[in-house]
Every structure is written in C-alpha cells, then in structure tokens.
Amino acid sequence: MSSPAAQFKTDAKRITADLRHRATIQTAMGKYELVRDQRKHWFQDWEGARTLAARTKYEAVNGLDAHLLQFTRKLEARGTKVHWAGTGAQACAIILDLLQARRARVVVKSKTMTSEEIHLNDALARAGVEVVESDLGEFIVQLRGEPPYHLVFPAMHLTRDEIKEVFAKRLHDAPSNDPEELTMVARRQLRQKYLQADVGITGANFAIAETGMISITENEGNARLTAALPRTMITLMGIEKILPRYADLALFLPMLAVMGTGQALTCYNTMYGGPRQPGEADGPEEFHVVLLDNRRTLVLADVEQRDALGCIRCGACLNVCPVYRNVGGHTYGTVYGGPIGSVLTPHLRGLQEWKHLSYASSLCGACTETCPVGIDIHHHLLRNRRNASAPKTGKPDAWQRLLFKLYAATAARPAFWRLATRFGRFVQRFHGLVKGGALDPVRAWTGTRELPPIARQSFREWWKEHGTHE
Fold this sequence. Notes:
Blueprint: H1 4-16, H2 19-40, H3 46-62, H4 64-77, E1 81-85, H5 88-101, E2 106-109, H6 113-117, H7 120-126, E3 130-133, H8 136-144, H9 160-170, H10 179-196, E4 199-202, E5 206-208, E6 213-218, H11 222-228, E7 232-238, E8 242-243, H12 249-261, E9 268-272, E10 286-292, H13 296-301, H14 316-320, H15 324-327, H16 338-349, H17 351-354, H18 366-370, H19 377-389, H20 398-411, H21 414-428, H22 431-434, H23 443-446, H24 459-466
Parallel strand pairs: 1-10, 2-3, 2-4, 4-7, 5-8, 7-10
Antiparallel strand pairs: 5-6, 6-9
Helix pairs in contact: 2-12, 9-10, 16-19
C-alpha cells in the first residue's frame, strides 16, 4: 500500500489532466463566488463581522473546558445523556453500544463530517447495521461508494448524467437527468428509510454553552426528519463546535450560510436541547450527545495553532484555493481537504505521515483572506512545515539532510557561492537536453513549471565592474 504522500502525487497527476473534471469544478466554483460576493455586501460591515466572529471563537476555544462543562450540565438537566470519547474508535464503540442495546438494524444519518472523520459508517456496517445518508449529496456519493468530495458540496464533482447513471444502477429508478426528478427519486427512497429507522444520527454545526443546545443548519430538512422520526437521536460532535452564547448565532448562522453556499440564510435552522419533553408532540424519546476529542486537545495545547479549532466548516477556503480547484477533493485522502484540512489533518492523523499536505499550497494567502473567522491558514501551513522538520518530531531523510548541509556550507562562504553560481550557469546550458526526463535532477519541479534561469551576472559581479570605489 502506497504512503499518503505517494498516493496524493499519483492522484493529483491524474486529476489535473482530467479537463472535464476541472471544467465541472471551475463552473461550480464560479457560480458560488458570484452569489457569495453578492451576499457579503448585505452585511453592514463584513470585515467587522469577521473580527467579531474571530474574537468569539477565540473566547470559545480558549475557555473550552468551562464552556464544555456548562454545555454538558445544561443538556443533562433536560434528560440528555452525554458521552465523552477520547478517540474515534471510542466514539464508534459508544455509538455501536447504544445501537446494540436498542437492537437497531437501520440508522438514518444526516450530514456530519465528524462521522466521516472517524469512519463511523464502516464501523457500523461491519457490525451488521445499515446506515443510510439522508443528505442528498451524501446519499449520492454513498451509492457510488465514495467519500464526500467537499465539506459543503459532497457531490460537487458529479454531473447530472453521472448521477442519473448511479441511480439507474443502484436504485433502478432514473427517469431523466432532470435535477428535480432525480431529487424525487432520492426522496422516495429516503422516506421509506425514515419510517424503518430505529435510530437517527446527526452532527452539529454549533453547540451553545449558555443554553446547552445543538444547532443544525441545512437546506433539505433531512436532519429534522432524522431527529424527529426515530425513537433515539444521537448527535456526534467535535468538542470545538462550542459557542459561548445563544446570541452568537445571530452572527454565525448567516455567516456560515453566506460563506458556505452563498445564501443569506439556510432554509432550516433548528435547535435541539434534549429528548421529547412532557407536552411536546414529537421528537426522540432518547437523546445522546457524543463529544469527540480525537487529538483536538493536542491542537488546543499548541498556542501558535489553536485558532485552527475555530473553523466553522464553511468550505470557503477550499473554494478559493488554486490547488484544491485543480487536484480536487478526493486527492487529499482525508475528509478535511483543502487549506484548512492541510492544517488540521497532520494534527489529527500524524504530522510525519501527512506533512505533504502542508506543501500542497501556493501560499497565496487567499484562504486566510476569505476565512470568515480569521484563521491564519497559510501561516499555519508554514508552521506545519517547520514542525515536520524539527528534530523533536522527526528528521528529514538522509538525502534531504545532505542537501541542506551542502547548501549551508556553500551559502556561508562567498567564494563557494561564486563558484557554485558559475557552475550552475554552465550546467544550465545543457539542462534543456534532459529536462523532465529520468536524468533531470530537478524533474519534480520542471515536470509542471519552468526552472528560473540563473542571472548571467550577479549583483556582486556587476558592482565590481560598475561600482564606484574610493
């Protein structure tokens, strides 16, 4: 099995050559950018809103321990059972125990990237539990046996004809490639699953410490059905989803909608505070909340990078990233792709094994500029690069160490530097003969870009020839 870095290079090379795929993504991104910029102007002061959002998330993350305890107390006071999971495996075990205790065989699940992070569907399937994704995009990629392509748009990479094909193959029902008709096909399938489901599993967009409530935002209403119809509701959420106050939603709900989908506000915004209370007409009889750490506290302990926990999963940084727009979502090999995923994944899955993602960036800064909560994303990528080469986390390979030692010895001695420059000019004359081939020593660079030529004359040489001397 190839390493994540080797797989990334293989997939990136294949996807960037797929012009149809690139056109599909560029078209989708272009439409998104148009409506996003229109909606941003609806804010009286967009930069002021970003600053307030960043301060609020800073308060939430830096007081996470107190906010989580307050959140838990409020939930438990209304009969909710709260479970703490240190790892993804523990979270899967907790949820599986809950399902087995209720002899659940069918589960409907609304969109939750946290469940993708811990591979919950696979764990439940191995135990004989049928899990059905109720979000339309997630439902489509589940039928294809694929992970989500994007944080917000799971099936962004697919055309309507490809969706029609998968519906015809897996559901035997695809009257045309018309989006509305295809949506109705999915609706008929999912309504039956809602009626059969023993348990509904949701994620959480935000969790309010002040009131002990879960906030879920969506456009299809599937999360509401997932929570309302089955007798048992389970919410899986990362501990970083906390907001201190209920009033904070007045900023974060429209901000998530604008940056996530280009809407002023998503169609359905629902708060859940516990199981069905006396006198209430519907809702689950049991409500369980699973709080997931899964190495998030290690990010919290990093003073330089803890603000990455402020991410609200809007996907805006993916949409503006030139690398993501060319290599696509699946190339990253992790549920959190794009710039913010390249920051978080090395923390969540191992710095040395996933350090290549921090180099999959042009460092143009577009991600930082667009982030609605002001995360310093492109500098975090640089910090990951630095940390990956630090002695405490692992050393570069022998070839890298040799090259850096040679460079240091040359750069520190003017005579060596002048000699290396002259030698480089001489060698570069012949580089065109081997460019991109097996004998090209810099083919990793020249395979996709031009090697900058060495100047015919250095500044020192020019000064020696033309400078004034007293």
